[in-house]
TrEMBL record:
Taxon lineage: Eukaryota, Metazoa, Chordata, Craniata, Vertebrata
Compartment annotation: Nucleus, Nucleolus
Organism: Phocoena sinus (Vaquita)
GO BP term (any one): rRNA processing
Residue ranges, annotated region (Disordered): 87-122
Protein's recorded name: NUC153 domain-containing protein
This protein's UniProt keywords: Nucleus
InterPro entries in UniProt: Esf1 (IPR039754), NUC153 (IPR012580)
Pfam families in the record: NUC153 (PF08159)
Biased composition (Basic and acidic residues): 87-117
């Protein structure tokens, strides 16, 4: 009796052939229609949960980078979703960095405006400016 029940359980499980799924995705529309008529077309109904915390290393670590130029890379719907999520997270990280940089720059500018310049330093700056102006004026007189 247990053997009969075990056979029914095995039939209910859905097995898949990865190579066939990839092959069917790369078929032309005409061939897909022919297979649909024969009901032999395999649909890839596998859904990847890109928000799963267990797979965050795929998006952050260079060790788990996907290389589409690799000959063993198979372009499937799931892989496309993973690549899209990685690009989205990279874009989001760049935006956060630019916002943080802008915020720090504005804080630095506010601080520089708030600070008053030391009087001795301002006198030194004025004297250097005056001497350079005098030097430029003498240089113009010699050239004429």
């Amino acid at each position: 009796m247990a053997l009969l029940v075990m056979d029914e359980e095995e039939e209910s499980k859905k097995h898949f052939n990865y190579n066939k799924i990839v092959e069917h995705q790369n078929l032309s529309k005409k061939k897909k229609k022919q297979l649909m008529k024969k009901k032999e077309l395999l649909e890839d109904d596998f859904e990847v949960n890109v928000k799963d915390a267990r797979f965050q290393a795929m998006y952050t670590s260079h060790l788990f980078n996907l290389d589409p130029s690799d000959p063993n890379f198979k372009k499937t719907k799931a892989m496309e979703k993973i690549l899209e999520e990685k690009a989205r997270q990279r874009e989001q990280k760049e935006q956060e960095l630019t916002q943080a940089i802008k915020k720090k720059e504005s804080e630095i500018q506010k601080e520089s405006h708030k600070r008053s310049i030391d009087p001795a330093l301002s006198m030194l700056i004025k004297s250097v400016k005056n001497k350079t102006e005098q030097f430029q004026a003498r240089k113009k007189q010699k050239v004429k």
